[in-house]
Amino acid sequence: MKTVNRLAIVASPRMPYLEWARATSGDPSVVEAASESFPSIYLVNEPNEFDPDRLIQKHFAMIFEEQLNSWHRDESIWPKRRTLAMFKEWFEAKVIDMVWDLGQGPIEADE
Hints:
The chain has helices at residues 15-24, 28-35, 52-71, 84-90, and strands at 2-4, 7-13, 40-44, 91-96, 99-101. By secondary structure, the chain is an alpha+beta fold. The chain has one domain (2-101). The protein is built from 4 helices and 5 strands; from the N terminus they run ββααβααββ.
């Protein structure tokens, strides 16, 4: 078993995100299914950063955009002003400092 030289930020949707998703979708059952899905995990290469708050602050904008994009690609319906405070209201985020690779073979990445 090998460790991966990355930290992970785990983002789980909270009610404001789910309410936004419900408002942009015509099918509430899809939103309910999304709320029960696995959280999203973002790997970051920050070998000398051990402050979870700073890591989240540094990466929240990109994570926020990806979460919005994963639900609805039309940026015109995204919240216009996305702050760190809003991110914390919309998502529970935590940092994981040990990432283990249990898979066989090389890791492949999609661009």
